[in-house]
Design goal:
By secondary structure, this protein is of the alpha+beta class. It is built from 3 helices and 6 strands, in the order H-E-E-E-H-E-H-E-E.
């Protein structure tokens, strides 16, 4: 009977130790030093994860008519606006931009008919891979034909964990 009790205690202590080790696992960001984004991310099972829906920038010019590109601004302005909105959204849930590890970015052509990827890359650099937030993220940046409204140029989904 005592042996069974000792074995039971040993098993419980072993399980507790394994759970404790799992709780101490950190998020591992697999870097690409030559790039502003990561190769990928290892996310331990014990982390709390928050996914945003696709977010767009807030309206810049509420008096603009539907389809008027001044309603949300150019690609850079919308990129900054959506990153600001992601920051507000995740902070309301207890996360920070340093907790973001993945972005899926959709960019539509601007009034010239071109997708301005450089505008997005510039805005990204103001929120990630810099002195304030040295973290990079795993990211997909996708040029699309159009978004839900003609004046929208940028939509982003973010995933954060801690």
């Amino acid at each position: 009977m005592k042996i069974n009790l000792y074995i039971g205690c040993f098993i419980l202590l072993s399980l507790a130790a394994c759970q404790s080790q799992e709780a101490n696992k950190e998020i591992v960001r697999v870097d690409r030093p030559e790039s502003s984004i990561l190769k990928g991310v290892h996310l331990p099972a014990n982390k709390d994860v928050f996914y945003t829906s696709g977010l767009v920038s807030e309206v810049k010019n509420p008096n603009a008519k539907p389809g008027d590109m001044s309603k949300y601004g150019n690609t850079y302005e919308q990129s900054i606006g959506v990153l600001r909105r992601i920051k507000t959204t995740i902070e309301a849930e207890g996360y920070t931009m340093k907790d973001v590890f993945f972005l899926r970015v959709y960019i539509a052509p601007d009034s010239t008919g071109e997708v301005d990827f450089d505008a997005w890359f510039k805005a990204y650099g103001e929120y990630f891979n810099n002195e304030i937030n040295p973290n990079k993220v795993a990211r997909s940046t996708i040029g699309v034909y159009k978004l839900a409204r003609p004046e929208l140029l940028v939509e982003v989904e973010a995933v954060a964990a801690k």
